[in-house]
Each structure stands twice: as C-alpha cells, then as structure tokens.
Here is the input.
Amino acid sequence: MRARSISTLLISLSAPLLLTACVSYEPAVLVPAVTLSAEEVSLLSDGADSLQVDFGLDTSLNESDSLFNVEVLPGVRVRSVTANGPAAEAGIEVGDILLAINGTETNHPDAVLALQLSDPLNQNGSYRFTVQRNTTVFEATVMARELSSNTAPVELYRVDPLATRAGYRTELVDLGDGAPIAAARVVEFFPGSPLPAAAFSQGDLVLALNGVYLNSAQDLVTRLNRDHELGSEVTLTRYDGNSVADVELRLWDPGRRISRFSLGPLLRYESSLSPDSESLTILDFWLFSLYSYQQTEGERSHRLLGLINVTSDSGELIEETNP
Here is the structure.
C-alpha cells in the first residue's frame, strides 16, 4: 500500500513536468531584429543654428588590443588628426587616448561631441585635454576653432525600438558634486513604451543602468537590447531636474504563445509567425494520420485518413488582359 502511494505521488509530480516538456513557447508578437548603431557614429545634436567647436580629431571607443579578451577601456582613442588643426598643434597624435576634457571623463565619442557642442564662448576656445600615450599621461591645451553647424547633418536622438520604445539624446549633466557626467535624456515615447507607467516623463535624464553609469544615449540603447531579455526587469537611475532616484522598470514584453505541443502519436500542434502557419495532427500512425490540418498564410488544407483531402485558399484578385 505504501509503495502504491509513493508511485501515485511520483506520477502526480512528474505529470506537470512531462506536460511542460511537450510544450514550446515563442513570442506572441513577431519581434524584429534590431541593428544597433556603431558606437563611434556621432552626428550633430539638436540646435542646427548654434555654434560648435572643432578639435580637429576623430575618436572611437578605446577597445583593448587583445583578440582573446576584447573589452572597452576608459577614455576614447584618437583615430585621426586633422593636419594643422587644433589637436595637431597641441601635440596630440593618432593612437593617443583622451581620458578627460576640462575634467569631464570622455569614455565615449558622444561625450567628446557633447563638449564640442557646449557653449564655446565660455571656454574662450581653450580646452584642457588629459591624454594617455602608452604609459605616460600628460595634459595638452587645445585651442578649439568655432565653426557653424547650419549646413551639417543634425542628429535628433538614438532610438530604442524594443526594450523601452523611446528616443534618447546624449547630454552632459552637472549634479553639483563634481565634473559633468554623460546622461541620456528622454526626448520621445513610442506606442507601447513602459517608461510612462514607471513615472518617466519626456525630458527626464537616465544616468545609469543597473547601477553602472552611462557613457552616452547609444550606450543605454546598446546595453538594453544586448544584455537584457525583453520583459525582464532593470533599474534605471533617473534625474528629473530636482532629485536622483532608482526606478524599477519592466522592459517591453511581446508576450508568449504556444508554438508547439506534442503528446506522442496522439496529438501534435505547431505554429509559426513567419510565415503565418499552423498545423494539427491527430493520431499520427507514420504512414497516415486520422486527421491533419495545415494552414499556411491564406491556404488551408484538411486531410482525413490520408485519403480525403480538402484544400481552400483565400484567393487573389488578378487583372486579365486580352492578347
């Protein structure tokens, strides 16, 4: 009697596990693949009529040289220097690493761009560059040149089409306790964005993701879509202009649907979103089945005992021309 009760308990415990193993899930909404912008892409931000300054150099992420341990290191690497430009005259060379400008850390090309777009008249054209060359760190004074941006391409924001369904722009923010830091300002919400439900408003600044401070708006978009599953929870550090607070946010969730259900030869169901299709088989005896149903796009097919087959299609209107 005791052995019988134990076997009954094992069956009752294993039945849900077996049933779960027979079921597969996929997103309820077809989620498109997102091609993330390259980190070194940097256009001009909003304000086409404003003045900007030119440092006479191009930068990219400071990635390690090792092929076996690729990681992003502090600072940005100088990829090109304009001949007779401000950076060249200050002694900066290709391969140098910019660690900071006027005390503001430059861990992303967008941070350099934001400094170029800050009010150049307040700087008198003079910028203090903290530069690393090999194992030597030195300071160089760059006399930036003003130039008009009214004919240059204008970047509006970096878009996150899935995780938060919002647009962000890189800005520098001064919290009053040190040098300005990079942040991502929320500039637009798209339909289905989870940010409004988490009390985010347009104009709020995102300072950090899961406690790690941002380098740029693109850094936020990249980390959200590369490192986190849709529907998971993250912590965004928000600055609304008055106070800093950590906000729990559940990323946009496409939902789930049953994509496959199989119970031995008795029943098998499969579905797909791309292409739109469904199939159902009852009592599959290998050579034939009692009943099978197949739907692909607008075409539907019913088969009984492998002998009777009925197929229907939604049809398509075409225009016929006389020869």
User: Anything to note?
Assistant: Helices lie at 2-21, 86-89, 109-117, 217-227. The longest strand covers residues 72-81. The chain is about 15% helix and 40% strand.
